[in-house]
């Protein structure tokens, strides 16, 4: 009789070490490759979502500024002057000093800061009765005055990063419209003032005769010029002169030429720079103003070492391809950096004190009473 093998003898004896579950090297590499592809697809989307949130916050900041300006207008029947020594009309209109942002503090939900600014300040703790600073401090440019070092969050665009030095005067990413003539910047002469800012003079809705929806009030400016970005600084000692008090610079196009670095588009070449937005209390053009001569996100220039006056100071932001702005009606618009800025045949800034702006649609948005008719589709 033939005996059959036992079941145990028919079952192959498996090596226990070969029964362990796991990935082969090829499988592991495939998984890593899939994860890398997913990360490469998702990371740009995450970054875009974050920038969209920052842009939205910046837009909200501008809305708050527009609302503050209109609340101020409801009280005084005009917007804050480009520079002044008082909340309302100063006693000496020939000596303006504080920016429009200082005058908007009580309308920007900053009652505690405003109350400290407008009163004499005793800096000892506890107070010893000694007045160390008069109301508004000794001037608009001293970082020794504690209130000026307080950073108002509404004045910073999150796309431009945080404030760099808490021991200096607080920063701003928002500026007032000085118009399309560089000689208007901190000038008290009525002739070249074509925007909504002027030293020692208050302008209101009635002055925006081109239409409140066609006239810029405030717009973004960049900071952090350490990277030599056009948005963050003003290039000094540029040959755009000789300067004329009524017609400004005869060769504003030289600003674009001098500021261009072929190896680093959008950044200044070697040369002296001054910062933008580094002092929200300062009414100087480099600190809290912009002109509509160069395109948004374009360069800023002056022919001397004084960027606070008689300067081409451009609006700019770190949002891709745009700047955001408040119009005189209080609305906020995103304006493309490719907006029309140059009228064909323009060779100089001559005659900009009268008539339509020679700087295209962008220049027309900067003027309050030049007779331009601008369609919303143009910007």
TrEMBL record:
<feature type="domain" description="DUF1559">
    <location>
        <begin position="47"/>
        <end position="340"/>
    </location>
</feature>
<dbReference type="Pfam" id="PF07596">
    <property type="entry name" value="SBP_bac_10"/>
</dbReference>
<dbReference type="InterPro" id="IPR011453">
    <property type="entry name" value="DUF1559"/>
</dbReference>
<dbReference type="InterPro" id="IPR012902">
    <property type="entry name" value="N_methyl_site"/>
</dbReference>
<feature type="transmembrane region" description="Helical">
    <location>
        <begin position="21"/>
        <end position="46"/>
    </location>
</feature>
<dbReference type="InterPro" id="IPR027558">
    <property type="entry name" value="Pre_pil_HX9DG_C"/>
</dbReference>
<keyword id="KW-0472">Membrane</keyword>
<keyword id="KW-0812">Transmembrane</keyword>
<keyword id="KW-1133">Transmembrane helix</keyword>
<protein>
    <recommendedName>
        <fullName>DUF1559 domain-containing protein</fullName>
    </recommendedName>
</protein>
<dbReference type="Pfam" id="PF07963">
    <property type="entry name" value="N_methyl"/>
</dbReference>
<dbReference type="InterPro" id="IPR045584">
    <property type="entry name" value="Pilin-like"/>
</dbReference>
């Amino acid at each position: 009789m033939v005996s059959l093998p036992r079941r145990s003898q028919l079952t192959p004896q498996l090596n226990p070490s070969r029964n362990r579950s796991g990935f082969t090297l090829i499988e592991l590499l495939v998984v890593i490759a899939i994860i890398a592809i997913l990360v490469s697809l998702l990371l740009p989307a995450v970054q875009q979502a974050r920038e969209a949130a920052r842009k939205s916050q910046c837009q909200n900041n501008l809305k708050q500024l527009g609302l503050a300006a209109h609340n101020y207008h409801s009280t005084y029947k005009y917007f804050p002057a480009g520079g002044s020594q008082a909340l309302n009309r100063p006693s000496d209109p020939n000596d303006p000093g504080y920016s429009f942002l200082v005058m908007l503090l009580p309308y920007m939900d900053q009652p505690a800061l405003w109350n400290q600014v407008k009163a004499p300040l005793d800096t000892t703790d506890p107070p010893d009765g000694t007045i160390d600073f008069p109301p508004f401090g000794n001037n608009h440019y001293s970082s020794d005055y504690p209130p000026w070092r307080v950073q108002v969050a509404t004045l910073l665009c999150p796309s431009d990063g945080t404030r760099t030095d808490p021991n200096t005067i607080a920063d701003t990413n928002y500026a007032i419209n000085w118009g399309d003539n560089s000689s208007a910047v901190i000038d008290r002469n009525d002739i070249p003032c074509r925007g909504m800012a002027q030293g020692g003079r208050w302008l209101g809705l009635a002055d925006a005769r081109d239409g409140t929806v066609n006239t810029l009030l405030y717009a973004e400016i960049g900071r952090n010029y350490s990277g030599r970005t056009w948005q963050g600084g003003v290039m000094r000692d540029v040959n755009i002169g000789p300067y004329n008090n009524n017609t400004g610079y005869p060769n504003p196009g030289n600003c674009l030429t001098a500021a261009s670095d072929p190896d680093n588009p959008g950044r200044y070449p070697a040369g002296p720079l001054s910062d933008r937005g580094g002092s929200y209390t300062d009414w100087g053009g480099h600190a809290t103003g912009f002109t509509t001569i160069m395109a948004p996100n374009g360069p800023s220039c002056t022919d001397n070492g004084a960027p606070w006056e008689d300067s081409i100071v451009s609006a700019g932001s770190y949002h891709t391809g745009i700047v955001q702005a408040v119009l005189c009606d209080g609305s906020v618009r995103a304006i493309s950096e490719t907006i029309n800025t140059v009228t064909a045949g323009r060779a100089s800034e001559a005659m900009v004190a009268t008539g339509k702006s020679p700087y295209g649609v962008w220049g027309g948005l900067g003027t309050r009473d030049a007779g331009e008719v601008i369609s919303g589709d143009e910007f």
